[in-house]
Amino acid sequence: MIKKRIAVILAALVTLTLAGCGDDIPSEALAKKTLEDKYASSPYLKMDSFKKVNGRQSSFGGESAYIIYYEAEVEAKKPFNALYDEATKKFVDFGEGTPTTKQLSMKAGDKVVTTGKIDFVKTENGWQKE
Fold first, then answer.
1. How many whole angstroms separate alpha carbon 88 and alpha carbon 64?
2. How far is 88 from 98, CA to CA, in rounded Å?
3. Dist CA 100 CA 97 (whole Å)
4. CA 127 – CA 26 distance, rounded (Å)
5. CB-based contacts of 74: which residues, under 8 Å, 6+ apart?
6. Cα separation values, 33 from 39, 51, 115, 118, Å
7. How many Cβ atoms sit within 10 Å of the Cβ of residue 120?
8. pLDDT tens for each residue of 9-18
């Protein structure tokens, strides 16, 4: 009888624990898909790999928000030139350069690691890119 009660209590605890695991934060897969979609429309780059390196939950104006910080390897689809900050591993727009910004000439097949963040907000339909 005691073993049965212990089994019931353990089952209830496992159920409660798993119930809290839902979509409390956006998944790494959602962040990866968001970035893949961004690069799918790029004539110059495609994403080869994606890794979540950190995350931060917050609220903004009463909304639940979450930031996923990532590192991704991207590959050139065709030759192009870009400004790339070697310290932050980010492509930058003209005029936003720093002392570590270099002119990057990429040939088709060249790869580079880039970092960034994706902002999400929680909606009735789940997490959405901000």
1. 27
2. 10
3. 8
4. 6
5. 39, 45, 46, 47, 48, 111, 112, 113, 114
6. 10, 12, 15, 11
7. 22
8. 444 444 444 4
| 78's tokens | 């065709």
Structure tokens at 35: 């970035």
The pLDDT assigned to 60 comes to: 74
Q: Phi, psi at residue 54, to the nearest 5°?
A: -170, 170
Residues 94-108 have pLDDT tens digits of 777 778 888 889 999
Encoded amino acid at 90, one letter = K
**0.85 cut: is pTM over it?**
no
Tell me the residue length of the chain: 130
Sheet holding 90-92, edge to edge: 90-92, 80-85, 101-106
Residue 80: which of 101, 103, 102, 98 has the closest Cα? Answer: 103
118 Rama class: left (phi>0) / alpha (psi -120 to 50) / beta: beta
Q: Which backbone phi and psi does 35 adopt, to 5 degrees?
A: -75, -35
Can you read off the two tokens belonging to residue 32?
Answer: 């990866």
Distances (CA, A) of 5 to 1, 8, 11, 53: 6, 5, 10, 42
